[in-house]
Design a protein that fits this description.
Layout (H helix, E strand, L loop, with lengths): L19 E7 L2 E2 L3 E3 L11 H5 L2 E3 L2 E5 L5 E4 L1 H14 L7 H14 L12 E10 L12 E10 L10 E5 L17 H16 L4 E5 L7 E4 L2 E7 L2 E5 L8 H12 L4 E4 L11 E6 L3 E10 L5 E3 L8 H14 L10 E4 L1
Parallel strand pairs: 9-10, 9-16, 13-14
Antiparallel strand pairs: 1-2, 1-3, 1-8, 4-7, 5-6, 5-7, 6-18, 7-8, 10-11, 11-12, 12-13, 12-15, 15-16, 16-17
Helix pairs in contact: 2-3, 5-6
Bound molecules: pyridoxal-5'-phosphate.
């Protein structure tokens, strides 16, 4: 472990590590996994990723547990999801086994950057795939690069696990109704930057998007899924335009384990009147509690957290998931892969 680093104060940014791993798809097959010490890429000027956005990615984390072991959270789920993203925009899907091999290798090689137990920090793992062969006609590439970089990131909640406010702004959509919303495509993020910055300027942590077709139902909360607790039930939007969050999937399982009813269904804006707790969920934060939801078009303010504190159910779910990631709570569902 690198003793020099100030783990607690690391941001969610980029810091160089020792190695990254790469694998090329050429002549109809994936090659051997290559280890690189370079932070740069040599790309053809006509690569499809540069012109037509053939880029997909993932985000997962490795944690140092209470027992000193390194755990990667939900490796298989991420391996599966990036294959779906690849198929979604006609890229070559990486075999799950290769994904696993690459993640294990890159974490092991950068072991000294896995933050110590108790620091609240973790090693962020960023797999990505790009089309690299030359093309100026609008067509998928014939060659691909799959790359994984890692970087240590600090605790998400630097000032404690506190609610933040989010807003509804109907002039923005993240994705189209039958578009690429259900895949982790870089272009979706480019499309959401204006809305995100606008929300930040107004003092909100994120935009709560409505479904892009009818603007009637809740969709996603910035780059995270939205969940709410209503009369003791866990509710989360069912939609064709949201990314199936692995954190949300995990929290739904934990909720069921706790005897909480889980509903994946349409949630109307009006229903926000009746919710007791809410959170934005994703790998970065696990769960970021919501204080207030301001509908900037109607002027209506939905106060979710009456006392400025996170709700009890969201807190319990958050603590349970964190406990599993850190090896403090038994991993009953086999979600963690130990890096030997
Ligand atoms: C990555 C992502 C999420 C969160 O997914 P996790 O698997 O929980 O990290 C949610 N929404 C969008 C749009 C995303 O890209």
């Amino acid at each position: 472990m690198d003793k020099e680093l100030d783990w607690k104060n690391l941001s969610f940014g980029y810091m160089p590590t020792d190695y990254n791993v790469r694998c090329y798809f050429r002549d109809g097959k994936w090659g051997e996994v290559e280890v690189s010490q370079s932070e740069e890429l040599n790309l053809h000027i006509a690569a499809t990723c540069l012109h037509y956005g053939q880029e997909i990615f993932e985000g997962l984390k490795a944690f140092r547990g209470k027992d000193g072991k390194i755990r990667v959270f939900r490796l298989e789920e991420n391996a599966r999801r990036i294959r779906e993203s690849a198929k979604g925009i006609l890229m070559e899907p990486l075999p799950e086994e290769k994904f696993k091999e690459m993640v294990m290798k890159v974490v092991k090689l950068n072991e000294r950057f896995v933050p110590p137990y108790g620091s609240g920090a973790s090693l962020y793992i960023r797999p990505l795939e790009i089309g690299i062969s030359a093309q100026v006609g609008v067509k998928p590439a014939s060659e691909y690069l799959f790359l994984i970089l890692v970087t240590p990131v600090g605790p998400y909640f630097k000032t404690g696990f506190r609610p933040t406010n989010i807003c509804i702004m109907r002039q923005y959509d993240r994705v189209a109704p039958n578009g690429t919303g259900l895949w982790k495509v870089g272009g979706n993020y480019a499309a959401s930057l204006t809305a995100g910055e606008h929300a930040h300027e107004l003092g909100y942590s994120a935009v709560l998007y409505l479904d892009p077709k009818e603007k009637k139902y809740l969709d996603e909360c910035g780059p995270a899924n939205f969940i709410a607790i209503k009369n003791g039930t866990y509710i989360t939007p069912a939609s064709q335009s949201i990314l199936p969050s692995i954190t949300n999937k995990s929290l739904m399982q934990l909720a069921e384990d706790m005897g909480i009813t889980v509903e994946r269904r349409h949630i109307t804006v009006d229903e926000l009147e009746e919710i007791d707790e809410a959170a934005a969920v994703g790998t970065a934060a696990v769960a970021s509690p919501v204080g207030e939801i301001d509908d900037l078009d109607t002027g209506k303010k939905y106060v979710v957290s009456k006392n400025g504190e996170p709700g009890p159910v969201v807190t319990r779910l958050y603590e349970t998931l964190r406990g599993i990631q850190l090896g403090e709570i038994e991993d009953r569902h086999g979600w963690c892969t130990i890096v030997e």
